[in-house]
Amino acid sequence: MDASKLLDKAFEKARIVSQAVYRQSKKKGLAKIKETEINRIKVVRDYLVSKLNKIVESFPRIKDMPIFYVELLDTYIGIKKYKGTLAKFKYSADFIDKLFQQYKNKIKGASNIEQIRNARKSFYGRVSSIIKELPFDELREIEKNLKEFPYIGNSIYNVVISGLPNVGKSTLLNILTNNKVKTANYPFTTKQILIGKIKTPFGDIAVIDTPGILDRPLDKINKIEKRAVLALRYLADDIIYIIDLTETSAPLKNQLNLLEQIKKEFGNPIIYFSKTDLFTDKEWALYKKLNIKGFTNPKELKEYLMNKAIEVMKKKAEQ
């Protein structure tokens, strides 16, 4: 809804109600006109205040959000902007309510029809200015961003896929979960957190694809990269770190540097070597030389995750 539609609806409702009030009123002369016009501006007040308050209430309160979503919100919108935008709608609702009381008293104290109608027109004008100044575009952008937030649901085990941009994170998500995430051959294809599920007899394994992180200190990352770090920090029961030995995404040195940062910050991840279909003797030799324990077959990785989920369920049952 935008400002014009909101005002049109309010004024139309007020017109219909005022006509009914005028016909049914038992009062005469000036008193009848006052009653009609007070009811007219009351309908406008009631409708707009109700709509604005419902808009505010339809958005989650910061204090009710888990810390992961609060910090994620800050990377999309900014906490200050989020609070400020909603505060404008709440303040406007309260101000329209106060205006109604002022103009109701003006109409009551009017001594002729012209004063009554001028008061009503003035109320309409001030209310219209308030509504037209509201940031509906910002509100729609906030709503769009909130819809992009990941929903984990009642998963029994959460696995977050991490690595540099374009190493094959979304491709692995698709293979493990039969998802259909579109991939493109350039960095930062994934700008949000995507979730797929592996179904097991015990419940779902949530596999979480994150934006790529560049090889730099975690306190120097940008907002898109921060979304990946938040997922690692708050959502991960385990982390899959992807290494691309073909180096079509990034030099191996950078990939190993980031791996060390991940280990230092979050513990040892599960290693998966991507793009093995592109391996030549050179990559297989490098794989052996690195001597890093990891998976090269996504089916074996999936089986491992399912067995790990069973272990998690057993531990939870024992607690």
From TrEMBL:
Residues 158-270 form the G domain. One of its GO terms (molecular function) is GTP binding. Residues 2-152 form the NOG1 N-terminal helical domain. It holds the Pfam family NOG1_N. It comes from the Archaea. InterPro entries: GTP-bd (IPR006073), NOG1_N (IPR041623), P-loop_NTPase (IPR027417), Small_GTP-bd (IPR005225). PANTHER family: NUCLEOLAR GTP-BINDING PROTEIN 1. This is NEQ157.
